[in-house]
Amino acid sequence: MDSFKHYILTRFNAGLYSPQTRLDISPEHWMEHRLRLFTTITLPSIAGQSCQDFTWLVLMDPQTPERYIQTLESSGYANMKLLYPTDGQSPWQQGFAPGRYDLITTRIDNDDAFHRDAVKTLQTAWHAQHAEREKPWVMVFPFGLIMDLGERSAWFMEYWVNNCPTLVENSDSPGTIWQWYHYQIPRNVKRHYLKDKPYWVQVIHAQNLQNAVDSDNPLRKVRKDLPAKPEHLWHFGIDPDALPGAG
């Protein structure tokens, strides 16, 4: 097999309107803020990729009000496709092309960003590695930036089990990268690390439930001695003058 299809997968707000969802704010407040983050950080990051040979699947709650759907669809970015979960089917599989190929799935959250060469680097690595790799296998960018929206500051970060890994598997029985929490990928799944530059931006804001700049997680290393300059954000498709507030 010498073919692949690459999908970037983002869970935007699936489950937001479920009675079981626990939020300290209203769904409307959550959506308004998250859309500002998404449209100023994540969307321009993906739309600005130097390689556009991929499809971006964005998973939506079926009860999302139409005004928010229209905001997303009005971006006009052809690679982005909104998906809605249906009973009895994998929420992602409805977005995959039929056929047998190497399925590459990359996770990114709806408030983070990739370096403009992230997709190109992943696909270059697949071309170099796939013939000798037993599937499934994972590609990981261990270096990135962490940005505090409140402080308007960013620093170099090392995190070898970060939240934007990429899985390569057979398309005929896909589990996708979302089958595991990013820090629970089984040890027997081989890793290939891409370490030549920072490839992601993790954004810290008021609605983060688990992430913070300062953490007792021993696997995360935030280098306060290596701050990023505002102009570095352009490499990730982010206009530093257009960033929304933290709250």
Notable features of this structure?
247 residues, alpha/beta, Spore Coat Polysaccharide Biosynthesis Protein SpsA, Chain A, seven-stranded mixed β-sheet, five-stranded mixed β-sheet, 12 strands
Number of domains: 1
Question: How many E-type strands?
Answer: 12
What's the CATH C level?
A: Alpha Beta
Structural class: alpha/beta
Please give the CATH architecture.
Alpha-Beta Complex
Give the overall silhouette: globular
Reported for the largest beta sheet, the result is: 7 strands, mixed
How far from one another are the termini?
48 Å
> What is the gyration radius calculated from CA atoms?
18 Å
Strand order of the largest sheet: 3-2-1-4-9-6-10
Question: Which parts are unreliable, with pLDDT below 50 for 5 consecutive residues or more?
Answer: none
Mean pLDDT: 92
Number of helices: 3
N-to-C order of helices and strands? EHEHEEEHEEEEEEE
CATH fold descriptor? Spore Coat Polysaccharide Biosynthesis Protein SpsA, Chain A
Description:
The protein is an alpha/beta fold and 247 residues long. It has one domain (4-242): Spore Coat Polysaccharide Biosynthesis Protein SpsA, Chain A. 17% of the residues lie in helices and 26% in strands. It has three helices and twelve strands, in the order βαβαβββαβββββββ. A seven-stranded mixed beta sheet has the order 3-2-1-4-9-6-10, covered by helices on one side. α1 (27-47) links the parallel β1 (4-11) and β2. The protein is globular. The relative contact order is 0.20.
